[in-house]
User: What shape does this take?
Amino acid sequence: MLNLDSLLDVVGELFADEISIVVSNTKEYIYHRPSKRIDLKIRPGDPVPEGTIAYKALTEGQKVSEFINRDVFGVPYHGMAVPFHDNGVLDGCVVAIYPAYTEGKSVVTLKTQDGWVPVPFSEVKYIEVRDRKTIVVADNITGTHRNSLQNFEFVLPHELFVRCHRSFIVNVTQIKAIYPDTHSTFMLSMRDGAQIPVSQSYSSYFRKLLGF
Assistant: This one.
């Protein structure tokens, strides 16, 4: 049977160019596989420090996705941490770490028919994947971008943008109202009139982030 380290090495190899993989128990790191682009110099046995996304995921008991500045590890990064449980008891978390390509930037550069247009984050209404294209809808302009929605989850400020569906990320300031759709899903009525679904797999996470 494949042991845990070997399994994580295989998973890490799939994302070796971009993503570092880190695993912790509730107190310390037990595994770290750095990528070619980012290495936080974590060693098994190092304590999980406050301010990291691993610490936040463990203390909050839920998935955390955000930007961490250089004060913690000396390297800025975007990451996602997901806690895991053993027989209902919190046992640790798994962290995916992306390099902070856009540190200091506050725009999304959209491709249009005429060229490229930088758009401030605050003007982006929502992002949609349609026909294998990532479409960004902003104030007075719509364009495409090469990023996937997963990449946008790490680039966009988490206080403004929430993933609500496998095909949508929304700017929460652009939501006009939230309506129940089924017993476990919702429909977002956006300020521009768009109707965007919140799928069942994201509904619990979405409700926690928006506090309802």
